[in-house]
Amino acid sequence: MYGCAFSEFRRLGVGSCMVEAGKNEYEVHWSGFKRKREYGVGIAIKVQPGIEIGEIKAINERLMTAAVEIFGLSMKIISAYAPTEPGKESAKMKFYQNLKKIKPDHPDQKLVYLGDFNATTDAVRKTAGVRAGKILENITSNDNGERLIEFSRNNNLSILNTFFKQPLHRQVTWHSRDKWKTKKHLIIRFVAIG
Q: pTM (2 decimals)?
């Protein structure tokens, strides 16, 4: 694993540290509230030759970015933690307004959105992902799921849970009383790496 994003990281303020995991070392960055341990996002990036870590930007307690180059591929990793479904409308709007403002630093940089979008949608399960530009019908989603699908369509992005066929219990991130739910998604513009 070269990198990952964290939601509900709950660290105070903005900071970074080095973490050892087995034989690997990771540079971990976070962004949270200054005085309360709520929400928070983080990004961990493996430290090794071929991986260059550029600018880390803490936007707020729900969004942060890291510019990285991994073996020649330039990308900006976005760690996101959307407000929950019963959250305030104004908080949801602000989250997506801030998310829309994130742009590549140069034309060759790819954006990779990682995190907990608190979105329930069966689009991922029914179609193996929401493909860029594709209009889907008969999809069941909560309000956050609709926001995520709209954001993805408007930005020519694809929502993925996995590239590979998996049994249901490996496709979901949690189980409520009545059904399995997928809340954490990978959102990308498909990139051909050759």
A: 0.77
